[in-house]
């Protein structure tokens, strides 16, 4: 190859790199605008006075003199979203904890233990999760009503656990398969029992996957609306955040207050993503190694 051909190839490669760099920048910019644009616009609306929004609804950025955060305490206190958020935190945390506790044991059994029908377990778990929730609504309501849990947060947690355990178990099974069996065998040779093995060996190695699954379950419980409406609609004090936001859209609520409440309810989920970001990325990567 001559020096001229080599130089042309380097020039062509450099031009392709520049084009790809520009395309990458354009794609990322468009994706950010499409995904974060509505959220940013909602936040900008929430910090404007309602009179200003009515007078100039299409104005994007508020002037420095009219910025106010009064809509947030109004949404949290006057419209009860603060209490709704606390109820949702309790329900979502309890659901995630119980679902993970059950799913870790079930996923380990599905991966490491030998039993009849082992190969059909995944299909059964996924099939239960794909079953429409509305089909189970009436039987669950009758069942919980007979045991006295129809209008309580405890009953709602039990329903959410039953709904999320299949998908959590399915996800954790994939992460468990990435744990080397040789490590477990070495621990058992040293006298480690099954439960101690799961607690001391399997869980630390599968922690990224557990964190990713727990956050996913938390999001399901945090955003769920159908069962919360079915079981808690009669008791305003036990409403979750999904019911609280829904009632804001049914009354003459100022747009700024509605936007403030919508922005506020995303804070716990976003904070969870940022706090567990490294574990989530590692967990998704390790889970994709085997399927």
Short description:
This protein has helices at residues 3-46, 50-55, 71-78, 81-112, 121-130, 133-146, 153-177, 181-189, 194-205, 207-223, 226-232, 241-248, 255-275, 277-287. It has 291 residues and is mainly α.
Describe this structure in words.
- The protein is mostly helical.
- The protein folds into 2 domains: 3-66; 71-287, Orthogonal Bundle (MetI-like fold).
- 77% of the residues lie in helices and 0% in strands.
- The protein has 14 helices and no strands.
- α8 (181-189) runs antiparallel to α9 (194-205).
- The longest helix is centred in the first third of the chain and has 44 residues, at 3-46.
- The radius of gyration is 25 Å and the shape is flat.
Give unreliable regions as ranges.
283-291
Indicate the percent of residues in helices: over 70%
Our count of helices gives 14
Structural class: mainly alpha
- End-to-end separation in angstroms reads 45 Å
The top level CATH class name of the largest domain: Mainly Alpha
The average pLDDT score comes to 80
CATH homologous superfamily assignment of the largest domain: MetI-like
Q: Which band does the percent of strand residues land in?
A: under 5%
What's the layout of helices and strands?
Elements: H1 3-46, H2 50-55, H3 71-78, H4 81-112, H5 121-130, H6 133-146, H7 153-177, H8 181-189, H9 194-205, H10 207-223, H11 226-232, H12 241-248, H13 255-275, H14 277-287
Helix pairs in contact: 1-13, 3-13, 4-7, 4-10, 4-12, 5-7, 6-11, 7-10, 7-11, 8-9, 10-14
């Amino acid at each position: 190859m001559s020096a001229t051909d080599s130089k042309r190839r380097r020039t062509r490669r450099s031009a392709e790199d520049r084009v790809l760099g520009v395309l990458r920048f354009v794609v990322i910019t468009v994706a950010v605008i499409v995904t974060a644009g509505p959220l940013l616009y909602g936040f900008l609306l929430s910090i404007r006075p309602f009179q200003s929004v009515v007078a100039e609804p299409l104005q994007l950025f508020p002037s420095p003199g009219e910025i106010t955060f009064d809509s947030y305490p109004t949404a949290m206190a006057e419209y009860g979203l603060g209490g709704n958020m606390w109820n949702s935190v309790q329900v979502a945390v309890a659901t995630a904890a119980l679902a993970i506790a059950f799913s870790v044991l079930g996923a380990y059994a599905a991966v490491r233990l030998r039993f009849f029908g082992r190969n059909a377990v995944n299909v059964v778990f996924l099939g239960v999760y794909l079953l429409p929730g509305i089909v189970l609504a009436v039987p669950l309501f009758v069942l919980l009503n007979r045991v006295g849990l129809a209008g309580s947060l405890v009953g709602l947690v039990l329903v959410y656990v039953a709904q999320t355990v299949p998908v959590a178990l399915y996800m954790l099974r994939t992460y468990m398969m990435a744990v080397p069996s040789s490590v477990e065998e070495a621990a058992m040779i040293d006298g480690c029992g099954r439960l101690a093995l799961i607690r001391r060996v399997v869980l630390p190695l599968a922690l990224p996957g557990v964190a990713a699954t727990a956050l996913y379950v938390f999001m399901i419980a945090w955003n769920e609306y159908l069962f919360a409406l079915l079981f808690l609609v009669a008791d305003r004090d036990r409403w979750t955040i999904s019911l609280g936001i829904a009632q804001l859209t049914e009354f003459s609520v100022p747009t700024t207050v509605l936007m403030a409440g919508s922005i506020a309810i995303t804070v716990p989920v976003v904070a969870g993503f940022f706090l567990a970001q490294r574990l989530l990325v590692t967990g998704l990567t390790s889970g994709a190694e085997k399927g």
